UniProtKB/TrEMBL annotation, chain A:
Swiss-Prot/TrEMBL keywords: FAD, Flavoprotein, Oxidoreductase
Acyl-CoA dehydrogenase/oxidase C-terminal domain mapped to chain residues: 202-334
Sequence ranges assigned to domain Acyl-CoA dehydrogenase/oxidase N-terminal in this UniProt record: 7-117
Protein name as catalogued: Putative acyl-CoA dehydrogenase FadE
TrEMBL record, chain B:
Organism (species): Sphaerimonospora thailandensis
Protein family (similarity comment): Belongs to the acyl-CoA dehydrogenase family.
This protein's name: Putative acyl-CoA dehydrogenase FadE
A GO term, aspect molecular function: flavin adenine dinucleotide binding
Record Pfam families: Acyl-CoA_dh_1, Acyl-CoA_dh_M, Acyl-CoA_dh_N
Record keywords, A-Z: FAD, Flavoprotein, Oxidoreductase
InterPro entries to which the protein is assigned, alphabetical: Acyl-CoA_Oxase/DH_mid-dom, Acyl-CoA_Oxase/DH_mid-dom_sf, AcylCo_DH-like_C, AcylCo_DH/oxidase_C, AcylCoA_DH/ox_N, AcylCoA_DH/ox_N_sf, AcylCoA_DH/oxidase_NM_dom_sf, Mycobact_Acyl-CoA_DH
Cofactor: FAD
One annotated Gene Ontology cellular component of this protein: plasma membrane
Length: 340, 375
């Protein structure tokens, strides 16, 4: 047993970190928020070159996956750099297409396009198929569908083509939320429902990893700020109230990471869904707590649109409830344990 | 990265089978009272007989040189089987690691086997009335005399010292030296001439800890651990263990979370989603601690001050988990029983082994690198 990233996986994360640092993501985010998609799509293509978009696509369809551990490693960095775009949605679509296989006429063509970074995909899940009925949250939007080449809608047992409707704004400016206009039925029946459940779990897993990355970055910038910002003639990081906030943020994040990794490792096992939900609960709570602490530690500057860390603060809250709220995932954990 | 535990399955199976046939059917009386202490000591002897009392130690001292992963698995099985609390815990978890690092071969050979068998049960004597979190302000003294040292002063909050056999702790051996300097780490029999023990009732009245008064207590040189004067460094080699995984292992919380789930199934109003969420959180956090343990034993670097992260996590989880159980029990929550005993015990977790405020200071300064407060 070795429950830590191996050297190659670590290197993959470091490579992404380097690319994303150079990409100056805050300016990409601000463009994306204003509907200027090209810099974000260029970043999408360069990430595809490193293999990020191939991780959920099986080798038979031109991908490298499924590689869930590499996937969470990549999404951790996507979160750390707050990269805009429907990455988790594209992972979910890839899983869906893979599971449905030949049932979809253009499935393999799309999968290949996703792996190569040519097809940006999004997905609307008006109900989250993996979660217990009363708890599931509804999201009648498809993230960034206005920038996507392929938009799908899971409508009960039916998979439909869809188009982007009116864009709604999110708290996170990088998340553009068009409503969807339903199109033709592409496939229907129990296989769609089954595929949608796994696809949903992959989206949740990717989002959980992203949340931990968002929280990490917020902690990093807050620690730096606490060392630099002077009040009362000393760095604010000397004050114990500030120290304890930051220590708490670390504790939460340190215990979310193993759950995310554990869920990735359990891909394909009967516990995958339960583990993914546990990871999402911990990651949502830890990242959101880190965001509130980051805001408090920064004071007024953190509350401004202009100051880059506020992009991460807003993303943490948006992702906290995206792909199922913590309450919905707790319900899932309990229902999967209650039978055990 | 993997979670492939197949290599430890034979060990797990052996431990599980032994526990299945040996764990007392009815819980032993509380180990915080005299009768329970004796019953738990007898249980230690039984564990030792199966070479299961100190699995991670070398064979020559009664262990089986289990790997850290095997140790985690042992703990999972131990608590899942509902086996008794470990009356030897402070010796095994707090003194033995210090001895392995700083003890002489003679000390190891003399102290460890009887610790492993429960024949000698050890009490930690660090805290003093004036020295709690600020341990370096301790004032009990060790004065050089021919062939050894004379101890004077007072220690307090020493767990189970009313019934234990030997104690260990730091004493000020250089009266001129300040704070962390001039301390010496010593072991002494609790029935030595000149020691007075006074049991202290904990919050539920059980005599869980004791005050110790030292009046010219002679300790021979062979009972000094490490170099005289280097007591701070020697003591600190204990705290890393204490704050890491060993003192309260993940297995303990996994088992408690499973029992909480049982209670939830028996007692819960399914519509009470607030309680349901707390049960889910207890399970999720216990699982997180289990995985963190697997992560920790997979690492090759020293976790150092990161052990403080674990201390905060398990102690807060323990309180939350037991509070949830009492809330599930409703009006029965105040009645004597296992959950209440566990709850009372959990309340001390954020205080002992370095308070959680101190741990947060450590994390902020030594893990996150924030500046120390100006003194
Ligand atoms: C059940 C139990 C068993 C114990 N067993 C043993 C044992 O076997 N052997 C032994 O030696 N001791 C034992 N102790 C004692 C334990 O180690 C001390 O209680 C602990 O170190 C705290 O010291 P104190 O109680 O004097 O509290 P204090 O140090 O007086 O602290 C009081 C409060 O002030 C806070 N505080 C103090 N300093 C700071 C600071 N710098 N920054 C922020 N907050 C601060 C603390 O966090 C705490 O909240 C035990 C305690 C308990 C409750």
């Amino acid at each position: 047993m070795k429950f830590i990233l191996d050297a190659e996986q670590r290197l993959f994360g470091e490579t992404l970190d380097k690319i994303l640092t150079e990409a100056d993501t805050p300016s990409v985010i601000r463009g994306w928020a204003a509907g200027v998609h090209e810099p974000g799509l260029a970043l999408w293509r360069s990430l595809a070159e490193t293999g990020v978009l191939a991780l959920a696509v099986p080798e038979s369809a031109g991908g490298a996956g499924p590689l869930p551990v590499e996937l969470v490693t990549a999404f951790h960095e996507l979160g750390r750099h707050a990269v805009p775009g429907p990455y988790a949605e594209t992972v979910a679509v890839a899983t869906l297409l893979d599971r449905l296989g030949d049932e979809l006429e253009r499935g393999s063509e799309w999968l290949e396009g996703i792996a190569e970074g040519r097809v940006v995909a999004s997905l609307a899940l008006p109900t989250l198929p993996a979660l217990p009925a009363p708890a599931q949250a509804s999201a009648p939007y498809a993230l960034d569908a206005d920038a996507a080449d392929l938009v799908l809608l899971v409508d009960g047992d039916a998979l439909r083509a869809a188009a982007a409707g009116e864009v709604r704004a999110s708290l996170d400016p990088a998340r553009r939320l068009p409503s969807v206009v339903a199109g033709d039925v592409l496939a229907a029946g129990p296989s769609v429902a089954a595929a949608a459940r796994v696809a949903c779990d992959m989206g949740v897993l990717a989002t959980a990893a992203q949340l931990v990355g968002v929280g990490r970055r917020l902690l990093e910038v807050s620690v730096d700020y606490a060392k630099a910002r002077q009040q009362f003639g000393r760095p604010i990081g000397e004050f114990q109230a500030v120290k304890h906030h930051l220590a708490d943020a670390l504790v939460g994040l340190e215990y979310a990471r193993p759950l995310v990794h554990g869920a990735a490792v359990s891909y394909g096992s009967p516990d995958f869904g339960r583990d993914v939900s546990a990871a999402k609960v911990a990651a949502s709570e830890a990242a959101y707590a880190a965001a509130k602490i980051a805001l408090q530690v920064h004071g007024a500057i953190g509350y401004t649109d202009e100051y880059d860390p506020s992009l991460w603060i807003r993303k943490a809250r948006a992702l906290h409830s995206a792909w199922g709220s913590p309450a919905a995932h707790r319900a899932r954990v309990i229902s999967s344990l209650a039978g055990a | 990265m993997d979670l492939d535990l197949s290599s430890v399955e034979p060990f797990r199976a052996e431990v599980r089978e032994w526990l299945r046939t040996h764990v007392p059917a009815a819980p032993l009386p509380s180990l915080e009272i005299e009768e329970g202490f004796a019953a738990h000591r007898a249980w230690e002897r039984e564990l030792y007989g199966a070479r299961l009392s100190v699995v991670s130690w070398p064979e020559e001292y009664g262990g089986r040189a289990a790997t850290p992963l095997e140790w985690l698995v042992f703990e999972e099985e131990y608590y899942a089987a509902g086996a008794p609390g470990r009356v030897s815990q402070n010796g095994i978890n707090l003194l033995a690691p210090t001895l392995f690092q700083h003890g002489t071969p003679e000390q190891l050979a003399r102290v460890l086997p009887s610790m492993a068998s429960g024949e000698v049960i050890w009490a930690q004597a660090w805290s003093e009335p004036g020295a709690g979190s600020d341990l370096a302000s301790l004032r009990a003294t060790a004065t050089r005399v021919d062939g050894g040292w004379l101890l004077n002063g007072q220690k307090t909050w020493s767990s189970r010292a009313a019934f234990a056999d030997w104690g260990f702790g730091p004493f000020r051996s250089d009266p001129e030296a300040q704070r962390h300097r001039g301390l010496t780490y010593l072991m002494f029999p609790l029935d030595a001439e000149g020691i007075t023990r006074r049991p202290i009732g904990r919050i539920d009245g059980k005599p869980a800890f004791a005050e110790l008064f030292f009046d010219d207590v002679f300790v021979p040189d062979r009972d000094v651990i490490g170099e005289p004067g280097a007591g701070w460094k020697v003591a600190m080699s204990t705290t890393g263990n204490e704050r890491g995984l060993t003192l309260r292992s993940p297995g303990r919380f996994l088992a408690a979370a499973d029992r909480l789930l049982d209670l939830w199934r028996e007692r819960a109003d399914p519509g009470d989603t607030a309680l349901r969420d707390r049960v889910a959180d207890a399970w999720i956090k216990a699982r997180a601690y289990q995985l963190k343990g697997y992560e920790t034993v997979s690492r090759t670097d020293d976790i150092g001050a990161e052990s403080s992260i674990n201390k905060i996590f398990w102690s807060e989880l323990d309180v939350a988990l037991h509070e949830t159980a009492l809330d599930l029990l409703g009006p029965d929550g105040e009645l004597e029983g296992d959950w209440l005993e566990g709850y009372v015990f959990s309340l001390a977790g954020p205080i002992y082994a370095g308070t959680n405020e101190i741990q947060r200071n450590v994390i902020a300064e030594r893990v996150l690198g924030l500046p120390r407060a100006g003194r």
